[in-house]
Fold this protein.
Amino acid sequence: MLTKEELPECDVATTVQLIGSKWKLLIIRNLRMRPWRFNELQKNLEGLSQKVLTDSLRALEADGLVTRTVYTEVPPRVEYALSELGETIRPILDAMEQWGAGYKEMAGERG
């Protein structure tokens, strides 16, 4: 997790730094529903490479937004879920979803 000194002074810039990439937002979108396994995320997020998914999940975990749970089973199972802190992002994504739906509706009226 970044220290307060490492984060941008602007609060909007802080949010963008933590969740602003396309893939991080889509990963968080999926994790709002339920915990996901790595391969499930990769299959669901078309065009996302294994490296970018790995890097994004590691960054989200390091920032305290995602938890990684390893189950000692055969074969081993790993699940990613929103952490308690990550759950606080839910209203932001809900608002983005509502705005996107409204935009599509308005765009349909214009076109």
Observations:
- The chain has a mean pLDDT of 92.
- The CA atoms of residues 19 and 96 lie 13 Å apart.
